[in-house]
Each structure stands twice: as C-alpha cells, then as structure tokens.
Design goal:
Order of helices and strands: HHHHEHHEHHHHHHHHH
CATH class of the domain at 62-100 and 199-336: Mainly Alpha
Number of strands: 2
Strand content: under 5%
CATH topology of the domain at 62-100 and 199-336: MetI-like fold
CATH superfamily of the domain at 62-100 and 199-336: MetI-like
Amino acid sequence: MSIRRPIVFFLCLFWALITLFPLYWTVITAFKPPPAVNRGPTYLPFIDFQPTLQAWIDAFSGIRGDFWQPLWNSTVIGISATVLSVALGSMAAYALARYEFRVKLGAGLVFFGLALGGYLLFHYPLEFSRAQAMGLAFLVALPSCLIANRLPLPGPILGNKDVLFWFVSQRAFPPIVTAFSLYLMYSEIGREGLRLLDTYLGMVLCYTAFSIPIVVWLMRDFFAALPVEVEEAALVDDVPRWRIFIEIVCPMAAPGLIATSLITLAFVWNEFLFALLLTTSRWQTLPILLSGQNSYRGDEWWAISVAALFAIIPMMVVAMVLARLMRSGLTIGGIR
C-alpha cells in the first residue's frame, strides 16, 4: 500500500501536466513577441524569451478586430439559451419521470401527413407564402394529432422510453443538414417581416431548440432518482403540482440542474456551425472571431492565443463557480 499510493500520485500528476500543458502553452504564447514564436519552441518566460503585452494591446485597441462585441454576443446568447433550454427541458424531463405517456404511432403519422399535406395545400393551390403555409399547416396538424391520439387507432403505442429516445434522436442528425434547413426557414420567416437571421432572437431560439434534447436526457435521470414520497406528501396537503416542481423538486435536483446548465452553456459557447450560417456581422460569436484570426501575413500565433484566451477564461470562471455551487447542493442534499 505504501508503494502504490506514490505511484498513483505520480501518474495523476503526469496526466495533469499533459492535460494542462496546452492551456499553459496558449497562455505563454499570448505574451511572446513575434521573434520568440517564429524561431522555435520556447517554454519559460524571462528565461527563453522576454514577455510582452503587445498582443494584448493590439487586441484591446481593435487592430485584430472587435473582441468585445463577440464576447458580449456569446455571453448574452449563451446565458439566455441556457436558462430557457434548462427551464423548458427540465419540465419535460420531470413529466417523463413522473407521468406515464401513451403516444400512438398512428397519431404521429396523422401529424406528419397533415403537416406535409397542409403545407402543400396552403402554398400551391391557395397561394400562401411558404412561411404562412408552414404556420397554418402546423396549427392544423397539432390539434388533429392530439385528437387522433385519443381515438382507437391501430398500431403500436409508444411509452416514456420511446419519447425520451425521440428527444435524444434529434441530436443524431448531421448538424450541417439541420443548419441549412434552419437557415432556409429563417429566410422565409424574414420575408414575412420577422427577421431572425443575424439577430439575438434567432440565435437564442436556435440554440434553445438544439439544447433541449440534452437537457431532457440528462435531467430525466436526476428527477427519477429523487424520492417520490416527498412529492406525495405535498400532494396530500393539496399543494399544486407547479409549486411542488418549483419549491420541492428543483431545490432537491439543484446539483443536476447546475451540471446540466454547465454542459448546455459549454455547447452554446463553443458552437461554430450555426453561428457561421445564421449570423453575418452584428451577432457573430467568439468562435467566428477565432476562426478569422488568420492574417494575410501568416498565422500570428501570439494574436490567436490572445483570442483563444478571450474564449477560454470566461468558461473557466463559470465552471469553477458552478462546480462550487454543485458541491454545495450535493452537501445540502446529503443533509436532507
């Protein structure tokens, strides 16, 4: 036992050095002058090279582009989409954990048929615009599907696990396919006067829609693990379901909510493809700024490292704060 512990310690230390070295390299490169970068690898400040703040001065002065607007865009969009997707996804996950759903496959086929047929009918013979035809077809298909689900339709009946699988399957599509589809839909809606391309609303709706399946998948297990006796006791006291969810269930599931929020925020913060296709200038995010840091003079790694730190540091701060809150929530849950 006395030999095993030092071996495990040194292995963990070695792995930590491997994991942290890219971050260390990015930090020191951000303080290197161009000659120190171009002449080969240098590792130790004040020994291998003399640190300089010139790359940071260039970044703050706007020579390498506007860093503050993409940082603000990523922050606002990321927080908004995370809060909205966690709120909506948690309610869906709680419903899947506490209620039994019976969805008839025939009702789904009714929705698909009416949605597609309604769109074709409204757009071609009736000559509605594409956006109007989509909206009208959805308004017809949704209530018809709910009514059809109550009818004795033939075919299999899908349960909670099937509904959960449907949520998770939404992330199985290639992102480029859904991104182009979303771009075309936003373009059609924009022709009706509601601009969604390169807007705050369009980006938040996009990221919320693509984050909800992750939230439902993660939070469903958290809610299922909570003791149902506490909720049953509240129901005996005639407490409404919405109060049970907000005042009892959510505080008990706080560590799960925090962990899910961190995962969701990381996905939105680092997402590149949707931001590339759905924004042009006003609401571009940090990944777009990072991708445009290559200069016509070559790869200026000192400037690219500064831009990378702009994207890394906020998420590190958020991760440390949320991890602290998550540990506090686990402690409170253990005391209960």
